[in-house]
Design brief:
Layout lengths: L14 E3 L2 E3 L6 E3 H5 L21 E3 L3 E2 L6 E2 L4 E2 L3 E2 L6 E5 L3 E5 L4 E3 L1
Antiparallel strand pairs: 1-2, 2-3, 4-7, 4-11, 5-6, 8-9, 9-10
């Protein structure tokens, strides 16, 4: 039986420790259940815990500074037709007056 590689450092020298896998090289531990789930089943949720999907309309719940600019995306700004992407900023969208932007799901709610 082959064990999965470490998701953090890709080391192949992982071992089992109870219900977890452990990497001896970077000391990362993760559950066996997490290892069996695929990345495609990742669920993106808004600030209220509602599941977001591609094409949804969202509302910004906090003033967000635009990096590299002095402008701000105001509270209550509606964003239509979002696209979910991988990464820290998991929403890709176009905001009228600002253009293409990436947002974190923790600062939006489903409209």
């Amino acid at each position: 039986m082959s064990l999965p590689a470490c998701p953090k450092c890709q080391s192949e020298y992982t071992y089992e420790d109870g219900d977890n896998y452990v990497c001896p090289e970077c000391a990362h531990e993760w559950s066996k259940l997490a290892a069996t789930e695929s990345d495609e089943t990742k669920v993106v949720r808004d600030a209220n815990g509602n599941v977001l999907q591609d094409g949804d309309t969202i509302t910004v719940i906090k003033d967000l500074k635009v990096k590299g600019s002095s402008s701000v995306v105001k509270v209550g700004t509606k964003v239509k037709n979002i696209r979910l992407v991988e990464g820290d900023h998991d929403i890709d969208c176009k905001i009228e007056g600002f253009g293409a932007m990436k947002l974190k799901s923790e600062f939006v709610k489903k409209a």
